[in-house]
Design goal:
The chain is mainly alpha-helical and 107 residues long. It has 5 helices and 2 strands; from the N terminus they run H-H-E-H-E-H-H. It has one domain (3-105). It has helices spanning 3-34, 41-44, 55-60, 79-83, 94-105; strands spanning 46-49, 71-74.
């Protein structure tokens, strides 16, 4: 691959990586914002798993990784019940609504 081709590939990978991280953070923030609060545990329970913080460094070294996948989870066992509408503070499906909103905001 030519130097220009390699540069272009790395440039695109970096742009996609940054957009992926931006979307992940937007979804996480929206989930936290919409999660009903009693003790605050469910709101604090949201976390991103599988994020690859070394991606950008490895691009600079020329070892471009394929796009990593991440999972946003909540460690509280009752999050499913909350998302089904067990709290009067948030409607059923608030998780899906948060994701849709974050995706729409990041187009």
């Amino acid at each position: 691959m030519s130097k220009l081709g390699e540069w272009a590939r790395n440039f695109v990978h970096e742009k996609v990586f940054r957009k992926q991280r931006q979307l992940e953070q937007s979804i996480l923030a929206e989930l936290r914002r919409r999660t009903p609060v009693d003790t605050g545990a469910a709101r604090r329970g949201w976390e991103i798993e599988g994020a690859d913080a070394q991606y950008g460094i490895e691009i600079a070294k020329g070892a471009v990784k394929r796009f990593s996948s991440t999972t946003i989870t909540n460690r509280e066992s009752y999050i499913v019940q909350l998302n089904r509408g067990s709290s009067q503070q948030a409607p059923a499906g608030f998780v899906q609504a948060a994701i849709i909103h974050a995706v729409e905001q990041n187009k």
